[in-house]
Amino acid sequence: VVAVAQGLPKLGVKKTYKVGFAQTESNNPWRIAQTKSMQEEAKRLGWQLVYTDAGGSAAKQVADVNSMIAQKVDAIFLAPREEKPLAAAVKNARAAGIPVILLDRNVDQSLAKAGTDYVTFIGSDFIQEGQRVGTWLKANHKGQARVIQLLGTTGSSPANDRRKGFEDAVKSDTSIKILASQDGDFARDKGRQVMQTLLQAHPDVNVVYAHNDEMAIGAIAALEAAGKKPGKDVLVMSIDGGKEAVQLVANGKINYVVECNPRFGPKAYATLKDYAAGKKIPAKIINPDRDYDAKTAKAGLATAY
Ligand code: GYE
């Protein structure tokens, strides 16, 4: 009979903790704001933070988590780049007796489970974010909508869920047609390149839905290079709500943005403290997100990250 570990690793109450934060990449303002929030709050609490940046590689991120396990951190905060490969890292930590809290992205739910393999997921409801974009489009487009969807990183939970939420919301509306959906890896220049290529195949596009601000900003550059007016000839919608995108909403080049707040530090560490104190932690802790349109963008600029 093989002994199977049951339940989550224990963590006692301590004055200060040594925790790991395994970041997925640092190529955009959202990631930089998230890292800053994690570092600042650790400093404020007087906790030691072991920080790693996987540089956009799931394999490197698995190795980063293994190195945190070897350094015997008290707990690991993980922003899993992709749903499947990082489930294994979560299980390694658990087997080593180190609790894991997932931040902002999830792991495949058939491979690892909250309350058993990891403590909880803290982040946004990505399906709802996609739904909100779809609902806004239904209410605001005129005539036939011909949509290009710029997808986030293949295999990541926000890309899967932002697609599902959006497509479910618009699927029964015959005045909305999705022309093409392609991976832009949540990156600005990739978004620009993909948009440039898709524009050649679909010059009649009049809506762009980008899974994050960075790809929307890249798409705007491609649209302008093709002589189109983003925000007018082509409706542009995205998710994240960073300052640059909110400013573009105020300027009329982006029409609608759903926020996805990257400031995780205070909530992440408070959750770990509750866990250490033996409080019951829900399987998911969902961040509330606001949104920005032509009416609210200006006022929102002050607090956008
Ligand atoms: O939208 C994007 C980032 O996982 C929620 O990842 C996060 C997403 C965010 O790179 O900009």
Automatic annotation (TrEMBL):
Keywords: Signal. The keyword Signal applies. GO terms for cellular component: cell envelope. It comes from the Bacteria. The keyword Iron-sulfur does not apply. Residues 19-280 form the Periplasmic binding protein domain. Pfam families: Peripla_BP_4. Its main location: other. It is found in: Cell envelope. One of its GO terms (molecular function) is carbohydrate binding. Belongs to the bacterial solute-binding protein 2 family. This is Monosaccharide ABC transporter substrate-binding protein (CUT2 family).
